[in-house]
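A student in our group prepared the protein record below, which I am reviewing. This is what I was given:
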Amino acid sequence: MNVIGIRRRGDNRASDHVAAVAVVLGVGARSPYLLSGLIRCAHCGHKWIGYTVNKGRKRKDGSNSKTLYYACSGYVNKGKAVCERRVIGIDVLEGAVVGQIEAMLQRYFATPEGLEEIRRQVEAEMAVERPQIGEELDQVDIRLREIKQIITNLIDNLTAANREYVDARIIELKRETAVLEARRLDLEAAGAKRLELDRLVDQAVQLAGEFDRAFVEGTMEEKRLLVRAFVKEIVVDPDSGTARARVMVVPGIEMEVAEADGRQYI
């Protein structure tokens, strides 16, 4: 997990002598915010959202002078009763997150050694989970066969005297069968997911190759999609001025890509 240090200037409030009107921006195709929907506030749990400040001083062409930030939606929508006003400049947060992704891609995808490290980690994870899945599947199948045989024996030995017991026992066994069959489906799905991981490594290599191109000439939507391929969540702690980016080296697999105390101060 990457830890990104965010250096605040004062309390990040607009200057007292500047008239400012805050406007929340959405996640639409025209939104300039790259990380919309990915940021969670550690203080109150709400999402951080795009937040632009229209300053009182206008440009020479008559348009408003705007500054783009991210801010907690708890504060934006409900005020200080939910969260304090803290804002982070768009360039500060996005630059830090994109920089961490680029550093991760350089580490894992720029050299044969990095790719081999990814494959070793994926194979190790698969090796750990596959035997456990297989063993439990075997146990489920054995129990299902046992239940089937027990039901057959109960029916074969059904009499007027034991009918009530047999009926109740069969109901119990059928309930257990339903639970076991549901568990069997879950295990099969988990096994299939493990088999897909090797394919996902190749997909991640392709995505890594697209990342630099997209950030030079791609559209905002392309950039958002690529960021979401590698970033699971960003947790901003406004009290300490840090942000933690949970990064996936391979889509679907969250890996540690930096030491927990490896702070980058902005």
Notes: Residues 5-27, 256-266 have pLDDT under 50 and may be disordered.
